[in-house]
Amino acid sequence: MNSRWSDQEAERFVARYARRWGRDLALRTYASRLLGGEPSLVLHGGGNTSVKTEITNLLQDRVSALMVKASGHDLARIEPGGHTGLDLSHLVRLRKLDQLDDRQMVDEFMTHRLDPRSRVPSIETLVHAFLPPKFIDHCHADAILALTNQPGGEALVRDALGDGVLVLDYFEPGFSLAKASAGAFHRHPDRTGMVWMRHGLITWGETARESYEATIDLVSRAEAFLARKASRSLTLRVRTSPEAAQARWSRVAPILRGLLARPTGNPDQPWQRDVLLPLQSRETLDLLDSHEGRSLAVTPPLTADHLIRIRNLPLWIEPPESDDSHAWKKQVRKSLSDYSRDYRAFVRRHRIPDPESGSSGDFSPRLILIPGIGAACAGRDAEAAGIARDIARQTFTVKARIARMGGTYQGLEESHLYLMEHRGIQQAKLAGAEQPLRSHVAVVTGAAGAIGSGISRGLLEEGCHVAMTDLPGDRLEGLAAELNGRFPNRVTAVPLDVTSPRSVAEAFDSIVLKWGGVDLVVINAGVALAGSLAEMDSGEFRKSERVNVEGTLHLLSRAARHFRLQGTGGDVVLVSTKNVFAPGAGFGAYSATKAASHQLARIASLELAEMGVRVNMVAPDAVFSDGARRSGLWEQVGPDRMRARGLDREGLEEYYRKRNLLQARITAEHVARAVLFFASRQTPTTGATLPVDGGLPDATPR
Predict the structure, then answer these.
(1) Which of 252, 281, 411, 477 would be 300's cystine partner, CB 3.0–4.6 Å?
(2) How far apart are CA 444 and CA 453, in angstroms?
């Protein structure tokens, strides 16, 4: 590992931040990002950094301050405000205490913040306060953990790093670890860093560069040692190709996702689902295919910081022996039941009467290992599942390194695992704004059009993961790029021709590969054909029929099979039209084919109800655009309508506004809200049509 420190870049941070935050914190921010930018050092909110400095208070007094990373902040993207300022002189005095529980410790932090609006600081704040050096860095370096997480780890650390480094046995993070670290440092103040067994590395220096490069030096030495000791290879039973793993995932992921869903007791929202992301790297597949795979992988995490993301142990499930989905579903159900039973027993064995600790009541695994398929990483949304996946990838890398050394992996003891996973200060990292569709995955067809883009954005704003489908091209890709900037991890563009059953099947497989399943299907794709019946070309009519009718059929058919496999119900919303109830002259092909589509959805509401699937329709009047995105339908039929009425574009839109009772301009956002009404299940409704037309008496469903 090489140092990425650049004096020029460091000075850019000083120029950018020092005026408001001071030079020390500007350099602290730069060095923190360097650490956070190395996944083999720090992952997703892990690690912490600090600097001791002085600030001027309101009375113009100089006050000693500890600026320490706030809990849960990501070092890779941290801003100066991501470090919480505390009264250092007060924190140092806490070392005199014999005991300090979490509640008391957090109270001391919160009452001695220099800015009451700043966030709760790291659980390891007192380590940073009790150690004298100005800059302190803490990370969970893979190479260090590969040394510490095996029997005889302390001797390995000393062989790899020499006597210039302190080695501390495992202490519970917080006050206990801070006291022990301070004691070790004061006994040997000449050392350059400290290794915490089965936890990580801490380094220090009087400058940001000195502390950062101490980390790089020690990790590099550990990596070189591991490379010298690597003399063995995993022994594979078989070798799964990534293509085979992906094909199997498409078949089994919906089953797994459905069985992982937890009942809520709410008949309108009966299931709490997870998003599933697959980990199918070459290294992961080889590990699970190896003879050593299960004994290596079904072991505790590398460090306690990972517990809240992947639990104390993963679940191992043997791959399906055949394509019999019923048999494999039975096998998975039993495996999950056994895991839940064992996890409950683990909690009961170690539960302590501490109001700051406890369990959420969720006893399902976050990491499921299936040879021949890979690892399924579960989370409430794609971000949480992605964090679990990144941690799993690093975990497998370290455990494989230990195996190549001929060593045996050794994680934390069970009691320590429980305490760290269920501590309130750790669980608080998972807290966040709950959105109604946070765990939902939606498919929107015709997404590149005005209504489709509005629906996609509306779903995303409510937390949904949205697969936007349309014919391939710049319109779809441009929309995906635009929305992905606002809603990272929750947008994907999937080319889809609704007239092709194969294309529909491949699109569903693509979405399953990305997020594990589908919960909501919005059938919006449609084409218009203007012209009188007397002059209508039957070939052009059949084109409308293929998109509007057969496209609806293909999607309903595929959705039904998927929902049956997943087993947790779902929703279908068809974007119908007011023309179903009030057809217009010269618009026969559109009116007739959309009426057929509408009728198919009504039949689906009858057939799919037994699976807990609700099928509803929204019937908008004319929507001309979504912001700058013009409606493809109105670009096609609008010119004829304008000529027939002697109007320009603005005049035509005004004509449609004035013809409804409320004199309302119908927008894509209005249609999106109607879709959201059904998707969020505000009422126990299926087979219904919700007009979005400002009030058109002739189009009222009857």
Answers:
(1) 411
(2) 9
Question: Are 7-229 and 242-430 equal in CATH topology?
Answer: yes
DSSP 449-508: SHHHHHHHHHHHHTT-EEEEEESSSHHHHHHHHHHHHHSTTSEEEEE--TT-HHHHHHHH
pLDDT (tens digit, 9 = 90+) per residue, 276-293?
999 999 999 999 999 999
Evaluate if residue 355 carries a pLDDT over 60.
Answer: no
Distance CA 702, CA 696 (A): 13
- Give the residue with greater pLDDT, 529 vs 27: 27
Percentage of residues of the chain with pLDDT beyond 90: 75
Higher pLDDT, 535 or 200: 200
Rounded to an integer, what distance in angstroms lies between the CA atom of residue 509 and that of residue 520? 15
Residue 603 in this model has a pLDDT that exceeds 70? yes
pTM of this structure: 0.90
Which of these is catalytic: 212, 590, 655, 656?
A: 590
CA–CA dist 372, 259 (Å, integer):
20
* β-bridge pairing 200-205 and 135-139: antiparallel
- Return the closest-CA partner of residue 204 out of 384, 48, 422: 48
CB 41 within 8 A of CB 222: no
572: left (phi over 0), alpha (psi -120 to 50) or beta: beta
User: What does the alpha-carbon distance between residue 198 and residue 213 come to, in Å, rounded to a whole number?
Assistant: 22
β-pairing, 613-620 vs 570-575, is parallel
- Scanning 165-241, the segments in alpha helix (DSSP H) are 175-187, 208-229
For residues 331-345, give the mean pLDDT.
92
CA 282 to chain centre: 22
> Which of 1.20.950, 2.60.120, 3.40.50, 3.40.225 would CATH assign to domain 242-430?
3.40.225
Hey, what are 136's tokens?
């302190």
Closest CA to 449 of 180, 629, 307: 629
502 pLDDT above the threshold of 90: yes
Instruction: Tell me the C-alpha distance between 278 and 367, whole Å.
Output: 10
- Apex 461 CA angle, 460 and 463, nearest 5: 65
Which among 261, 244, 245 is positioned nearest to 369, based on CA atoms? 245
Distance CA 241, CA 120 (A): 45
Question: At residue 452, does pLDDT exceed 80?
Answer: yes
13 phi/psi in degrees, rounded to 5: -65, -40
pLDDT digits (tens, 9 = 90+) for 634-652: 666 656 665 666 666 777 7
φ, ψ (nearest 5 deg) of residue 234: -65, 145
- Asked if 421 and 311 count as a contact pair (C-beta separation under 8 A), the reply is yes
User: Under CATH, domain 441-696 is a member of which superfamily?
Assistant: NAD(P)-binding Rossmann-like Domain (3.40.50.720)
Angle between helices 501-515 and 551-566 (to 10 degrees): 40
Question: Is the predicted pLDDT of residue 531 greater than 90, yes or no?
Answer: no
CB atoms within 10 A of CB 359: 16
Helices within 290-323 (DSSP H only): 293-297, 307-310
Between residues 579 and 141, the one the model is more confident about: 141
Strand partners, 166: 194
418 is catalytic: no
Domain residue ranges of the chain, discontinuous segments joined by + = 7-229, 242-430, 441-696
Q: Would you say the C-alpha torsion 685, 686, 692, 695 has a positive or negative sign?
A: negative
Q: Which residue has the higher pLDDT, 512 or 59?
A: 512
> 638 is written with which tokens?
């609008």
Q: Residue 699 in contact with residue 619, Cβ under 8 Å?
A: yes
CB 699 within 8 A of CB 693: yes
Provide the CATH topology of domain 7-229: L-fuculose-1-phosphate Aldolase (3.40.225)
Is residue 496 a contact partner of residue 470, using CB atoms and an 8 Å limit? yes
| pLDDT value of position 636 | 65
Rounded distance between C-alpha atoms, residue 111 and residue 476, angstroms = 51
Q: What is the pLDDT of residue 357?
A: 47
